[in-house]
């Protein structure tokens, strides 16, 4: 009984973002949705994959899952449960868009288009996780944080 109490106390002391960063189980599909390359013309693809608290990943071909961290900054790729790469997508945008968060993604053959709200977009190489393109709105009137 004391052992269970110690574990409960330890879990209570861990920060919530640390607990939320766990990667998805390979068979768990409740927090991911299939990408268009897995659609098989069933009509289920809705365009962009909107990232929410409930939906944080996209299942692609070859058992690959692209997962957005709970902080909305990090994008990771897992294949068969093994981490391939992890990238802080928001870091290059901090000066231009201070409140940037990953809002949605779309997968292309070699690139992941990551939307950071109305003001920014990044292109991520699907194999390496490197940011290969960075676009943002330079209008100084758009510096207000966007609502979630």
Report on the structure:
- This protein is mainly beta and 148 residues long.
- It has one domain (22-142): Thrombin, subunit H (Beta Barrel), CATH 2.40.10.
- It is 11% helix and 32% strand.
- The chain has two helices and ten strands; from the N terminus they run H-H-E-E-E-E-E-E-E-E-E-E.
- It has helices at residues 2-13, 16-20; strands at residues 32-34, 49-50, 57-60, 64-68, 74-79, 82-88, 104-107, 111-115, 120-125, 131-136.
- The strands form two sheets. It has a five-stranded mixed sheet, with no helix packed on it.
- The chain is globular and about 45 Å long.
How many strand units? Answer: 10
Structural class of the helix and strand makeup? mainly beta
Low-confidence stretches: 16-20
Query: Strands of the biggest beta sheet: in what spatial order?
Result: 1-3-4-5-6
Counted by DSSP, the helix tally is: 2
Helix content: 10-25%
Count of domain modules = 1
Mean pLDDT: 75
Q: H/E element string?
A: HHEEEEEEEEEE
What CATH calls the topology is: Thrombin, subunit H
CATH class: Mainly Beta
In angstroms, what separates the terminal alpha carbons? 42 Å
Please state the overall shape, judged from the principal axes of the Cα atoms: globular
Which sheet architecture does the biggest sheet show? 5 strands, mixed
Strand content: 25-35%
Radius of gyration: 17 Å
Name given to the CATH architecture? Beta Barrel
């Amino acid at each position: 009984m004391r052992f269970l109490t110690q574990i409960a106390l330890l879990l209570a002391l861990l920060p919530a973002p640390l607990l939320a960063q766990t990667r998805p189980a390979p068979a768990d599909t409740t927090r991911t949705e299939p990408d268009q390359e897995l659609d098989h013309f069933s009509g289920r693809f809705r365009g962009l994959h909107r990232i929410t608290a409930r939906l944080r990943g996209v299942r692609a071909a070859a058992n690959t899952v692209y997962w957005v961290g709970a902080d909305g900054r990090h994008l990771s790729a897992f294949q068969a449960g093994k981490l391939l790469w992890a990238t802080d997508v928001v870091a290059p945008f901090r000066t231009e868009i201070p409140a940037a968060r990953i809002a949605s993604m779309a997968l292309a053959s070699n690139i992941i288009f990551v939307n950071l709200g109305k003001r920014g977009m990044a292109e991520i190489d699907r194999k390496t996780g490197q940011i290969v393109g960075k676009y943002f709105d330079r209008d100084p009137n758009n510096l207000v944080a966007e609502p979630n």
